[in-house]
Amino acid sequence: MIINCQNLHKTYLSDGKELHAVDNVNLSVSRGDFVIILGHSGSGKTTLLSLIGGLTSPNSGQVTINGTENWAQTDEELSNMRNRTIGFIFQFGSLIPTLTVLENVLLPLSFSDNPSGDRELALKLLGDVGLKDKTNVFPSQLSGGQQRRVAIARAFINRPAIILADEPTGDLDEETEKEILTIFRKYNQEKNTTFMVVTHNRVLATTQINPRIFGMRSGVLTEQLTDAELVK
Ligand SMILES: Nc1ncnc2c1ncn2[C@@H]1O[C@H](COP(=O)(O)OP(=O)(O)O)[C@@H](O)[C@H]1O
Ligand SMILES: [Mg+2]
User: Which domain holds residue 155?
Assistant: First the structure.
């Protein structure tokens, strides 16, 4: 089991009241699973991914990645785990505007054991996402969809076992969305990469990826067994 969440709770104080952003989530994800989380805005999807990725600490409960509990580790161990094991694709673009496309993709390696980077892999990844010709341009010279694809290539540079993607295809046209899903599927199938993809878009759930689909509502996560049960 690569990801395990047990009785996971995260509350925020909102207007003096406790808000249960993540409410008693239990989840087991095996290596190579493709997990999709659907849910309305505010249902706790981003909070859950940050807990799993060790970016946010829970109020109670546990997250274990490859058998090691996130918050039983020192800050350094936890950040090493993040760098080695997880590729993040955030909801909002996070490319560094003063770095080229290639430099942006190589950036995560500057915090790793291999700070000089893996240019060859970066170029291969940029080829995979269809940006071979754009390696030396700056993010401002790319369309929104192209920028998103750079962020995807960057998430794979550490050869992560897990990809956590937060609405990776939000505000993209359907064609680009399909291309991105095809890339995800390729990495899922060829490299057995585990995916957790948060979305409120039904298109994602109906591709040929054959995912495990979960619905999230007011912090509560429920696996959806049939299409009829999907959150509307
Ligand atoms: N840092 C925070 N402080 C206070 N409330 C927060 C914070 N982050 C998220 N929330 C609240 O927690 C709930 C879940 O948020 P979020 O995980 O971002 O949901 P989603 O990603 O599904 O839109 C929302 O009600 C949101 O307003
Ligand atoms: Mg969100």
Answer: 32-57+76-223
Give the total number of structural domains in the chain: 1
21 CB under 6 A from ligand 1? yes
Q: Whose CA is nearest to atom 18 of ligand 1?
A: 46
> Which of ligand 1's atoms lies nearest the C-alpha of 13?
4
Separation of CA 195 and ligand 1 centre (Å): 22
Q: How far away, in angstroms, is 192 Cα from ligand 2 center?
A: 26
Give pLDDT tens digits for 16-71.
999 999 999 999 999 999 999 999 999 999 999 999 999 999 999 999 999 999 99
Question: Residue 65 pairs with which residues in a beta bridge?
Answer: 3, 68
Q: Burial code of 131-167, b = ≥16 C-beta within 10 A, e = fewer?
A: beebbeebbeebeebbbbbbbbbbbbbbebbbbbbbb
Task: Give domain status of residue 207, yes or no.
Answer: yes
Contact 150, 136 (CB under 8 A): no
